[in-house]
Write a structure and sequence with these properties.
This protein is an alpha/beta fold and 259 residues long. Helices cover 45% and strands 17% of the residues. It binds NADP nicotinamide-adenine-dinucleotide phosphate.
Length: 259
């Protein structure tokens, strides 16, 4: 199937590792020009070298903290300066913050919303006008299934993620007439550095396979891999999903609702 992505330009936030890096790889393989960004410059350079090794293609690297609106503006404008257009935005930057209610101080609520909600808002604010200029675009907000089915220990992240889903829905209605599609993916458990840390902290005595398959009520029986998330994101930003907007797709091995 031709995904119709060749020649398009994508900005992926939080793309120095994990799901963001894998999404960059998948999009490069489809002929997309890519900007990667995150805060740590060394990790970004390593990511760019990895992507070059895998695809023979250079990416634009822009050190960016998405909690800072001026830096979101800067990464969008750097992308336009380099590639002349912007078709795709993947708002992926994020970290796990999962506690019970009384353990979360006000400052942490603010930090989490700054990262997961305002980061996406700022990037979209500057990207949307450029998408209009090229007759449309696609935005994917990477969130978590805890936004739909929040466990007791999921604060503040599940609240920030639920807000991200409402943002997606409202923006899809607002921007549909401009042919800008906005969708969410809701991640369950995907093997990335943050999950590997959880493995080392919780059960270092287990092999990865044992840890991955440990009973977590995941119908598919294991933790997912980054390419299994990145391929869904790639589909959603592609022309193959040209009639898909305002929806959320769980990438969770079927676990949502069983938690
Ligand atoms: N993996 C899972 O099981 C899982 C589950 C639920 C939701 N998610 C969500 O899915 C997304 C990707 O997860 P992942 O597991 O691939 O994460 P990861 O491996 O920890 O990577 C997170 C990326 O975000 C960047 N980042 C963090 N804070 C940032 C900021 N303020 N500005 C810009 N970049 C920032 C990190 O780089 P720097 O630190 O250098 O900035 C890194 O590139 C995240 O939003 C995460 O919350 C993942």
């Amino acid at each position: 199937m031709d995904l119709g992505l060749k020649g398009k330009v994508a900005l992926i936030t939080g793309s120095s590792k994990g799901i963001g890096l894998e999404t960059a790889l998948q999009l490069l393989k489809e002929g997309v020009e890519v900007t990667i960004c995150a805060r740590n410059e060394d990790r970004l350079k390593e990511a760019a070298a990895f992507l070059f090794e895998q695809t023979g293609k250079e990416v634009l690297v822009v050190v960016t903290d998405v909690t800072q609106e001026d830096q979101c503006k800067n990464v969008v404008e750097a992308t336009i300066e380099k590639y002349g257009r912007l078709d795709i935005l993947v708002n992926n930057a994020g970290t796990v913050q999962a506690f019970t209610f009384e353990k979360v101080e006000t400052e942490l609520w603010r930090q989490d919303l700054d990262l997961k909600l305002f980061g996406a808002i700022h990037c979209a604010r500057y990207a949307v006008p450029y998408m209009r200029q090229v007759g449309g675009g696609a935005i994917v907000n990477v969130t978590a299934i805890s936004g739909k089915t929040p466990p007791a220990t999921s604060l503040p992240t599940s609240v920030s993620r639920a807000a991200g889903m409402a943002l997606t829905k409202a923006m899809s209605k607002d921007l549909g007439p401009d042919n800008i599609r906005v969708n969410t993916v809701c991640i369950g458990l995907i093997r990335s550095e943050q999950i590997e840390k959880m493995w080392k902290n919780q059960a270092p005595e287990l092999s990865w396979e044992e840890f991955s398959q440990k009973d977590r009520q995941i119908p598919l029986g294991r933790i997912g891999n980054t390419d299994e998330a990145a391929k869904v994101i790639t589909f959603l930003v592609s022309d193959a999903a040209s009639y898909v907007t305002g929806t959320s797709v769980n990438i969770d091995g079927g676990v949502a609702g069983t938690l």
